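Hi R.,

Here are the chain sequences for the assembly we discussed:
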Amino acid sequence: MNINLLIWRNLKKNIKNYYLYVFALAFSSSLYFAFVTLQFDPALDEASGTVKGAAAIRAASVLLIVIVAVFLLFANNLFIKRRGQEIGLFQLIGMTKGQIFRLLTVENFLLYFGSLMIGIFLGFLSSRFVLMILFKLISIDELAELQFSSQALVQTLIVFAVIYLLIMANNLFFIHRQSILSLFKVKATTEGTVKRVTVVEIVIGILGLCFIATGYYVSSQLFSGDFTSVNELFLAMIFILGSVIIGTYLFFRGSITFIGNVIRKGKGGYLNITDVLSLSSIMFRMKSNALLLTVITTVSALAIGLLSLSYIQFYSAEKSAFERVQADFSTNSEKEANMLTEAFTDHNIAYTEETMEIVVATFNMADMIHLSVDPESAGVDVQKMESTVVSDKDVDGLDVKPNEVFFTGWPAMYDPIMDVNENSSIVMHTTANEYKLDLVGLNDEPIIPFYFTFGGSPTAVVDDTVYKQLQNALNDDLQTIFKDQGNRFYKINLENQDDLVRANDLYDTLDFERNTWSLQLEFQGVKEFIGLTLFITGFLGLTFLITSGCIIYFKQMDEGEEEKNGYTILRKLGYTQNDLLKGICVKQFFTFGIPLILSLFHSYFAVKSGWFFFGTEMMTPTIIVMVIYTVLFSIFGLLAVLHYKKVIKEAL
Amino acid sequence: MNILEAHKIHKTYGSRGNKQEVLKGLDLQIKQGEFVSIMGASGSGKTTLLNILSTIDHLSSGSISIEGKEMTKMKERQLAEFRKHYLGFIFQDYNLLDTLTVKENILLPLSIKKVSKNEANKRFSDIASELGIEDLANKYPSEISGGQKQRTSAARAFIHEPSIIFADEPTGALDSKSASDLLNKLTRLNETRKSTIVMVTHDPVAASYCSRVIFIKDGQIYTQLNKGDEKRQDFFKDIMKTQAILGGVQNEH
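And here is the predicted structure of the full complex:
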């Protein structure tokens, strides 16, 4: 039997063991190939060109390489350790380390590039599907076409060849470092031996919980006004990050053992089968995998957090101020409004036009608003706040008395930086007089188009009589864009939404000087950008999810192998396969569940501390993201249970 | 009263064309309270016999009943149930779960049977003091010696008061001091608790602690020796002689 035959036999035998490695490799390469294909796709050029997303895509592809490389190296490490005995045997029968390395290299080459080809093929097939999702997200009505990009192929091959070299270097290092004897023992030494729980560990365990709790607490205070300057804010963020990550590490290192030990103490040595398979095993395993689990948890938290934020953005954009203001076109110029309506009439587009009067005034809101941030750093003077004002006769279903005021379009963004006293009054200034108005309420429904709200600030609604007096004593310096146009703006709505495309084409041909907007076109740009962001974070998130799921699964395969002996004992003692499987399910629930739940918590607190910068709705999008992530992650837990089922069956 | 009866057990391994008959119609009776050892050369089928008697392996034909219960027809689940209530095990390599403490390991069989916690603690302290391991209760297997591990394993076999205990080379991995220590303890437990023990060994010294020794050769019972009122040393000499005639690998004791 020559060495080539040996390689071939080895490969055949190992493919069964390696199927998940092959899967992981094929999967990551197909992901990467699909992504790079998109990067080179001319259709995307248009999309990314308009939103300047090219840089984002490139950055994401670099990040993708890093994740894939680390993941493949890790997987390779696990698998070569499993083969320590075999390598030891080859050395024992007189093979040199060089020969063994050659054997592994050739074997790996076939396996690696074989799966790579499969991956690229799958990536090619799925890239159209992926492109379709992207188009859907950025609402481009184009048909995704299947295009094979040789540029993408070359880039993928180069990247994966470099990763292959890294893996080989890693294998070379592994073979050279080990003696024959230690190779035989590799399996036994991968996990620390079981020792008694020491006081140090208890302290570590409690510390870990404290660190995490502190991080969470500081994160909830982040934007509540305790940290006023940018520097302080930055330091606080670093502190949160550090505290939570260290806390997570200590949690895996000690807290699990500590909590497990408390539970076990309570049982007084009388453990049932579920405890035996889950509790006692997890207590010791988690500790030796602390670093790995910390990385997985942090990365997952990052992925869930980013996904949630971009989905919040996407979700909020859908129902943001843009869309809730039912004005397809808006302008503050009578001339331009006429240009537009004439064009519409010429082309038989039915529309309605609405005119609203609007003024800007200053208010003393010291009584109503309590700022929780430093007024100077926030650039807010509550004694002299500017706000748009409209008359209640222009607002349907709202009637305020002469001494009252109502605020509409109150942004959610304000919530964390100020408290509103609902039973208070404000003072409105005109050049002639001051009006004391009682606050009767506020809502988040905007009534004027976004462009006239000065970046989404609220609008005061006052009684018509008060409004008339205000008009007569206007402070001209405040009127800005409304000044020359008689303090009016025009909302033009299409009667039939099917005309929207034609209307927008007309809008494009007209030559506007002043502020005239098409909701559709303005919104499109924003949506494209948000959609692209969601797409990229989704793509990376999926990669994170699958790599971390695979890593835990690999670890479980290893553990199953090591604990097989224990299953034999337990089955001899009279436990049925079902008894054992129940215990294993609980174990998987914790092995996958603890990192998952921890990362869900991390990301929840991260999202909670700053979501209002991204959108108006937090709970629904965040929960949707978390549920999807949990479901996908659970699939790996299920796979692990199926693997264990096989191991248990073979154990007796 | 016979606690275990086996009739014409056959066991063949391998598929058609390459069949190997390991047990060839073996008959065996073991009485309540006996301490029996099974001896034989490597490949004589003694471990296979033990595996079959202890329901871990299936037999090809024949019948086995323990306490009058026929087990050859039982399903996997019933067998597990059976092992749970009627059988105890001691293995050569201890087979303790290294993530559990000594006490947790010993109490395992009770937790399957859902014995109350107080009762479990009482039984634990009884058996642990008899085997001299009560001080080790909260230690992990990695922290104790081989002899202590084997006594833990023995305690686990005895704690749920099974009808019959199977021991597979229990002294195989122990030094001679720990071995004789363990065998003395087993003998004592056999006497005080009236438990039935079936032990497979190839060590004549270990066998000499038993009340009866069954020799197996090529899948059949070759001969049996009864200790009767003999002293252990004399019984040991008898065993040595038989073993010499048996022609197995000579032991140098």
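Chain B has a mean pLDDT of 85. The interface with chain A takes residues 54, 56, 76-77, 80-85, 87, 89, 91, 95-101, 103-104, 107-112, 117, 120-121, 124, 137-143, 156 of chain B (CB under 8 Å).

Let me know if anything looks off.

Best,
T.
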